[in-house]
Structure formats: structure tokens, C-alpha cells
Amino acid sequence: MTGPLVLGIETSCDETSAAVLDGENRILGHVILSQDVHRVFGGVVPELAARAHLQKIDAVVDAALDEAGCTLRDIDVFGVTAGPGLIGALLVGVCWTKAAAFALGRPVVGVHHMEGHLFAPSLEDPGAEPPFVGLLVSGGHTLLLYARAWGEYTLLGQTRDDAAGEAFDKVAKLLQLPYPGGPEIQRAALSGDPARHRLPRPMLRSDQRPGQDDYFDFSFSGLKTAVVDLVGRLGREGVLEMERDHVAAAFQDAAVDVLVSKTLRAVEETGCSRVLLGGGVSANLRLREEMARRLGPDGVVLRASPRLSLDNGAMIARAARFRFDLGEIAPLDLTAAASMPFPGMTHTSDSTVALA
Ligand code: KG4
Ligand code: ZN
Question: Which CATH superfamily is domain 129-303 in?
């Protein structure tokens, strides 16, 4: 076997996950445990998430090692999500990993959760490499970027308020669908007519031009408010139950339209028609289909299977290997951070993207 064995640990939100990658980035063992407890509350309760990680992390790592046919002593490099995310939840993963690595005298690499999402498609498709335009859409982030190479990113746009996944979750709650809302909206939308209710496309106007701040940026809170108004009206008319799937379809269409339209602007601006979709919302079938359709036959959509699109330890192990190869070993005082800068990300104020 070539290259070090990497163990990746992910505990930034409500999935406790561990994965072992071999030297060729093949997944030898991978366990993802989703915490059910949050369903009762209709959203992630940070304190409960941290406790659940603490209770399950040993068993999750053991199961991943078993599947890989190795023990903790065989691990050469430990990778862990250090941020961004829920601080208590992150700390469980970071402290566990530091303790194990220190005991065994192995290096630890702190991984940025969203860079992990960027690497996820490459675990299944070796061709999912830069250059690409990346759309990262999760429960906490919505980022549009250009990746010139691994570790060399230009931020084009981001959300000014709610993240895309957050909008799916909030709209699902309004429609009395369970948490997490994304898959529920997708399911309901299958039997809905997206044209029955017209919802706005926030921050998407035809008069926007490259160089203007809002050309690539997103906003989802106005869309959510429009759904609040619509749901209120349908409720007063006593037809909400009947209209639920139509509202879900209209919302999904509006969110996907904005995400795809802004991504296509980035494709035009960069001249790069390879688009990588990452983060939990990239599991959305309508988003995948629309992106492929509007990108056309000359474009390529890079994305992971739904299992690897959602939070998982394998993408963290993969990103950890990349950072380890650059010599980025964390000091023992590595700590978790609720927010942290995206490594290798430069910001463009004038939206000009230099192509290498
Ligand atoms: O990346 P992720 O697993 O966790 C974070 O880093 O936040 O993303 C979770 C988000 C949730 O908001 C969830 O509702 C959304 O991804 N999601 C989806 C779908 N599956 C998960 N959104 C739309 N369609 C889906 N099929
Ligand atoms: Zn995530």
C-alpha cells in the first residue's frame, strides 16, 4: 500500500462520522451516524448534538476501523474538522482526535469543513479535480468559488443571510415537514406543480452586471418570507394541506433557479464550464438536473453520490491528506472554531477572475 493511512473525523453538526482512506484515497471503512434526536425539535439543538457525538464517537471510529480491517495503531495521519460548525460539536471531534493522535505519536491535521465538501466528488470520480467553478450549498453556507487548483480558490459570491440548506429546512418547517427539510421538500415537490405559485428569485435580476456586489451573491431570507406570506394566505383559505406539494415545488424551483443562474454567470465569467456541486443541498435531484440541463452538452457537472454529498468523515480524511502533503500539521493546541477562514481563498472585489 502506498502513502499513509488517513483517519477522518467529522462532528461539526449532527452527523458523527469516521472514515479510513488508503494511500490512493480509496475508502476502506466509513461510518456515518445521523443523530435522530433533533427531529423531535425540528432543528439541530447544539447542546444535544455535542452530547450525542461524545456518546457515539468511540463506537463510530471502532466500526470504521473494523470495516477497514485495521486498528487505531495502523493510522498514520489523523484528520478532523476543526471548523466551521457548532462549537460544542466540533470540540468533541477535535479533542478526541488530538488525544488519540498524541497517545500514538501521530500528526493531526485540522480540516475546514467546506474544503472537505470540495473534495467529496473526487472520492468517487478521480476526474473531479480543478479547475472548476464550485457551488457549495449546505445548512450553514452558500459559496460560489473558482478553484484554479486544489488550495487555490477565488471567492465569487456568498449568501448575505440564510444558507440554501437553511432555507430548505425553514420552508419545510413552515409546511410542517420534518427535519432535515431538504429531502422532504424534494419528495413533496415531486407531486407538486412548480408553476402554480410564483415565488421571487431574490438577488437575481437581468440588469446586474459583473463587478457589482450582488452579481454573484445570494439571498434566501426574502424567499423564505415570501413562503411565510403564501403559507399564511393558504392557511386562512383552509387549503394549505392541499397546496403543500405545490408550495414545496415552487420553492425548490425558485431556490434552484437562483443557484443555477448565479453558477452559470460564474461559468461565463471564468470561461470554465466544469461545475462542482458540494454540500448537503447538492444531493438535490432538481438542482443536479437543472445544472446539467442549463450547462448544456459542453459542460461537466462534478458531484458526489448523495451519501458523500452530506456530512461525512471520508471527505475530511481526503482534505486532511491534501493539507498533510503540504506539511500543514496542526500544533497540539489546535482548537475548534465556529467560524474560520477558508484556506487558500482569495476574495475578489471586482469579480475579475484570473485564469491560470
Ligand atoms: O452539508 P450538510 O450535510 O451539513 C452542513 O454542513 O450544514 O448539509 C445539510 C443541509 C440541510 O440543510 C439539508 O436540509 C440539506 O443539506 N439537504 C438537502 C437535500 N439533502 C440534504 N437540500 C435539498 N435537497 C436535498 N435532497
Ligand atoms: Zn456540511
Answer: ATPase, nucleotide binding domain (3.30.420.40)
